[in-house]
Amino acid sequence: MNALCATGPLPAIGRIGLCVSVLSFFLSAPVASAAVSYTVTPIASRFIATDINDTGWVAGTRAVFSNYRASLWSSDSGMLDLGQLVGATPDSMALGINNDNRVVGAGLSGASAIPRDDLMSGDAAFLWSRDSGMQYLNTSGLSGDSIAAAINDQNQIAGTVTHGGTQVAVMTKPDGTQRVLGTLTGGSDYGGWTGLSSAAAINAGGDVVGTSSAVTGGGHAFLWTEAGGMQDLGFLPGAYENSRATGINDARQVIGWSQGDDCWCAFLWSVSDGMQSLGYLSGAATGYESSFASDINNAGQVIGWSHVGDVAHAMLWTETAGMQDLNALIDPAEGWVLSSANGINEKGQIVGTGLLKGQSYGFLLSPVPEPATWAMMLGGLGVVFRRRRRFDV
Is residue 116, in this structure, part of any structural domain at all? Predict the structure, then answer.
C-alpha cells in the first residue's frame, strides 16, 4: 500500500483526506503533463539495435574490431554474440526477432551498408535459435544470395533471394519451404521474373511488405497477402513515383517512405485511407525536409527518423500527437542525441542508434507511466483503503 495511505497514527478521517488530496493533485495536473516521456538505457557502444520483442530482447549488429557481428541483448543477460555461419566470413547482421527469441538476418561477404534489408552479393540468410545456434536458412533448392529481414511468432520469415535471374521477395514457412512472392511487373517461377522485389517485414497473419519494380517505372511499396497476392500501394503525390514499405502491423497498416514533390516523407497506408504522408519534423534545414519510417506496432505508433537542421533525429508518430522528436521526450541532461529509431514492441519500447556524449551507442527507450496511470493507481489504492477501513474501528 502507498505509504501515504498506510496504517499509522493518523485517524481514519485524516488518512482519507490525505489520500483524496494526493489523488486530486494528480487528477488536476495540466493536460500537457500527460505527454509520454522515456527513460534511456544505453545498450552498448558501436551497436546498431534493429528490433525488439515484447519481452525486451533486442536484436542488432555490433562492431567488434574490424568485423560486424549479429548480436542479442537484454537488460538482464547483457550482450550475446550469435556466432557465424559455418564456412562463412565472420561478418553477420541481425535484422529481426520474434517472441520466441528466434533471430533472422544474414551472414555477409563484406561489412558495407549495415544494417539493411536489400540483398547484396555474398549474403546468406540465417535463422538463429538457442537450441541450434546460427544456421543457414533453407532455400528449398533456390540458388544464389539470400537475406532474412523479419520473422513473426508463427516462425514465418520474410526475405529476399536470387531466383530466376533476379532478386525476388520470398516467405519461408516454418517447415523451411519457401513461397516466391513475385514482382509487380510479373513473370513466373519457371520463366523467371521481370524487375526486382525485396521483402522487409511480416505481420502475425503472414502478410508481407516490401518494394518491387513497378509497371510504370521506379520502385513501389507492395503488400502481399495469401488471398490477394502482391498489391501495388502506390506513392505520394509527385513526379517521382518511388515508394518503399518497411513495416506492417496486424491491422494491415503499412509504413515506409515515398518521394513526393515536397520531400522524401514517411507514410502510413491503410485499406480505408490509402497512403498518407506523415510529414517531417519542424526545424529541418533547406534540403533536409524529409522523414523515414522504420517500424509500427499494433497501437499504430510509428517510429523512424527525420531531421532537425541537418542532423538526423529519431522520431515517433502517433495519430493524436503527430510527429514528435524523441530527443524532446527524454532528459536532455543525459547527453544523448537519438539519431534513428529502428524497432518498437507492443509495450511501446523503442530501440535504435544515437550518440551518447559524442560516441555511437545503441539505445533502449522505455515509456514512463503517464500521470493518468498514476492517478488510476492511486484511485485503486483508495479502494483498497476503503475496504480495509471497515476493520479500523
Answer: no
